[in-house]
Amino acid sequence: VLIFLPGYDDIITLRDKIYSDLHYVAEHRAMIFTLHSQMQSSDQKRVFRPAPPGVRKIILSTNIAETSITINDVVFVVDCGKVKERTYDAITGVTHLKAGWISKASAIQRRGRAGRCRPGLCYHLYSRLRFNSFRRFQVPEILRVPIHELCLQAKLLAPPNAPIADFLAKAPDPPPFMVTS
After folding, report:
1. Residue 92 in 3-state DSSP?
2. What HEC string does 117-175 produce?
3. Residue ranges per structural domain of the chain
4. CA atoms of 53 and 29, how far apart (whole Å)
5. Tell me, what is one Gene Ontology molecular-function annotation carried by this entry (predicted)?
6. What is the Cα–Cα distance from 137 to 81, expressed in whole angstroms?
7. Helix or strand holding residue 18 (H, E)
8. In whole angstroms, what is the distance from residue 14 CA to residue 114 CA?
9. End-to-end Cα spacing for the chain
10. CA distances from 113 to 61, 96, 109, 151 (A)
11. Is the CATH number of domain 2-139 1.20.810.10?
């Protein structure tokens, strides 16, 4: 079972609730794994090992499991439809993680995690009406971060002596520079 949750705090809360019911864990012979971007890669690798016969593997994950990895023995996916993204508030000048709805593309990716090696099911914890209100794609991070961070990162990646604006203009979704003047 692969369960998509918005962030680390949500993962830990659900993990602790499952573990607090030791009867459930013992009766269902469950192994609980967490998966998020702040984990060491060695810890992430444990998720790929198959569970022993008769043991249910439950993976609590952020959107890291959407596209970057494939866990072959996932049969069921539970999708809450939320994601935490880094956003910048230009009025306060603060960057923070904000929970919001996923995109249609993310919902399709999450559904595709089920049944890679045998038939599977995906349970969406949102209505079709909600799904229809989702954006087609997530807003790219390049459009959600502070412009000064973006420019510093671009300076590190751009060829020497290349103007930052020219380098960023070549991005698939370049930032709107007119709002930065």
Report:
1. coil
2. CCCCEEEECCCHHHHHHCCCCCCCHHHCCCHHHHHHHHHHHCCCCCCHHHHHHCCCCCC
3. 2-139, 146-174
4. 10
5. helicase activity
6. 13
7. helix 8-20
8. 20
9. 49
10. 12, 28, 7, 35
11. no
Q: Of 128, 96, 130, 124, whose CA–CA distance to 110 is shortest?
A: 124
Calpha distance 5→34 (Å, rounded): 10
pLDDT value at position 180? Answer: 43
> What sign results for the dihedral spanned by CA atoms 106, 64, 30, 100?
negative
- Give the tokens for residue 90: 């230009």
* 36, 11 Cβ separation under 8 angstroms: yes
* Position 43, amino acid: D
Of 39, 41, 54, 47, the closest CA to residue 72 belongs to: 47
Q: Going from the first residue of the chain to its last (181 residues), give the mean pLDDT of each consecutive group of 10, the final group possibly shorter.
A: 96 92 73 88 85 91 86 93 88 87 96 86 97 94 79 85 83 65 40
Q: How does DSSP classify residue 71? A: -
Residue 108 has which token pair? 């399709």
CA–CA separation, 144 and 125 (whole Å): 26
